[in-house]
Design brief:
By secondary structure, the protein is an alpha/beta fold. It contains 15 helices and 20 strands. Strand 16 and strand 17 form a beta hairpin. Keywords: FAD, Flavoprotein, NADP, Oxidoreductase.
């Protein structure tokens, strides 16, 4: 009998963790991984902040996995454009969709269309050198910026805006972003969330790093730090220890003497929601409404009050969530921005005929968790896939059915990627940095194919 041949769409952490689980199983699986970019690793490359190099060390695990003879990488191949999902389903035994949630959520308020009103997806992709965002319309010529959201991505955005240029120059931040931030006039960042410090979704390490930045004056919304008896009791529960640590860190920052002038300022504001972005052709201010919290202490909702206030700013960055994008002929939950599934198996799959569909990562559960969360998530999906296989719910195709699939773009394999990687790291060493990222796909392809031996041949998959 032929070996099960699985295609994974997406080469971020969830895709690699799914490949890891498949290849460690006793099912004799072969794995082909597809990504629309020539570069693997997804958000590890384009989402993790450049000053957090330690987090990126997880790619060593992925690199080791890629050396498995039963693993193949197909970079620079966009499913739905360079090759159809239906065609892949006719050639592979099962498909795991692990392409993430790449769409930022814009602010649902008047004025969000104005120039300099962007999402965190835009900004993070821009400073990390993602090819889709290198030409972002971004102007850092105003002294004030507003970041909407109280999660770790919002923290990254605020920290990068306020970071010392010399510090960023030691990272792998994209060259165009490094130069723009060197010339930036932003001196004040307002980080605003709709609920209180108890409901904020920071992790303590990220929060402590932000509030401990040197040469940044921290101004905390003290009124929002006043807790009632129920909230104090809630924080004392052992299960809420992480939330209590966050509140303690914020209280400590609020207690510091903030009268001394510093080069930059961070204003941490709670209980406020944007209601409009003001400006004629570009952002000039953001109007907020003050909220109050209602409901049980473990599930309090923000309810708009009657007091409004405005913050002058030349830039707004919305960090209020990420959404997946639908694929043709695949079920999609438009409200949640995910592919509906049960334990990773796409709902409505008939499990006969075309290869069944499974999902992993953010497109499966939404944009939650950290990189490590994806290992357990992918493991659940692979267990469901292998259970279906062992129960005979989907057949393994005969090798005669696996005719090669012609690709409509030059394929980048893992050896090609390593040439790109080597070139970036070499350029980085020459300037005292971990790497200098290529941000042009054409430049990546040129480096990738330069070292290949022999004449170019038509690329095929499967």
């Amino acid at each position: 009998m032929s070996e099960p041949h699985i295609a994974i769409i997406g080469s971020g952490p969830s895709g690699f963790f799914a490949a890891e689980a498949l290849l460690k199983s006793d099912a004799g699986v072969r794995v082909d991984m597809f990504d629309r970019l020539p570069t693997p690793y997804g958000l590890v490359r384009s989402g993790v902040a450049p000053d957090h190099q330690q987090i990126k060390q997880v790619v060593k695990v992925f690199d080791a996995l890629a050396s498995n003879i039963k693993f193949a990488f197909f970079g620079n191949v966009e499913v739905g454009s360079n090759i159809s999902l239906d065609l892949l389903r006719s050639r592979y035994d099962a498909i795991i969709l692990a392409y993430g949630a790449s769409a930022g959520t814009p602010l649902p308020v008047p004025g969000s269309h104005l120039s300099q009103s962007i999402t965190a997806t835009d900004f993070v992709g821009w400073y990390n050198g993602h090819p889709d965002f290198t030409r972002l319309d971004l102007s850092l010529d105003n002294d004030s910026a507003v970041v909407i959201g109280h999660g770790n991505v919002a923290i990254d955005v605020a920290r990068i805006l306020l970071s010392d240029h010399a510090r960023l120059a030691k990272t792998d931040i994209a060259d165009h972003a490094l130069e723009a931030l060197r010339r930036s006039r932003v001196r004040r960042v307002h980080m605003v969330g709709r609920r209180g410090p108890i409901q904020a979704s920071f992790t303590t390490a990220e929060l402590r790093e932000l509030l401990g930045m040197p040469d940044v004056r921290i101004v905390v919304d003290r009124e929002a730090l006043r807790l009632d008896e129920q909230e104090h009791a809630f924080l004392e529960l052992p299960i809420n220890a992480a939330i209590k640590r966050n509140v303690d860190v914020i209280n400590a920052a609020a207690a510091r003497d903030c009268s001394r002038e510093k080069a930059k300022e961070l204003h941490l504001t709670f209980l406020a929601s944007p209601v409009a972005i003001e400006g004629s052709d570009r952002v000039s201010a953001v109007q907020f409404v003050r909220n109050q919290l209602e409901g049980p202490v473990n599930d309090r909702k923000a309810v708009p009050g009657t007091w409004h206030f405005s913050v002058l700013a030349g830039l707004t960055i919305a960090s209020i969530g990420f959404r997946g994008r639908p694929l043709e002929n695949v079920p999609f939950d438009t409200r949640r921005g995910i592919i509906p599934n049960v334990e990773g198996r796409v709902m409505g799959e008939a499990l006969h005929g075309a290869a069944p569909l499974y999902v992993a990562g953010w497109i499966k559960r939404g944009a939650t968790g950290i990189i490590g969360t994806n290992r357990a998530d992918a493991g659940e999906t692979v267990r469901k896939l292998l259970s279906d296989f062992r129960e005979g719910r989907w057949p393994v195709k005969d090798d005669r059915q696996r005719v090669n699939v012609p690709l409509m773009s030059p394929r980048i394999d893992f050896a090609d990627w390593r040439r790109i990687d080597d070139a970036e790291c070499r350029a980085g060493r020459e300037s005292g940095r971990p790497r200098r990222k290529m941000v042009s796909i054409d430049a990546m392809l040129e480096v990738a194919v330069r070292g290949r031996e022999g004449a170019a041949t038509p690329e095929t998959a499967a």
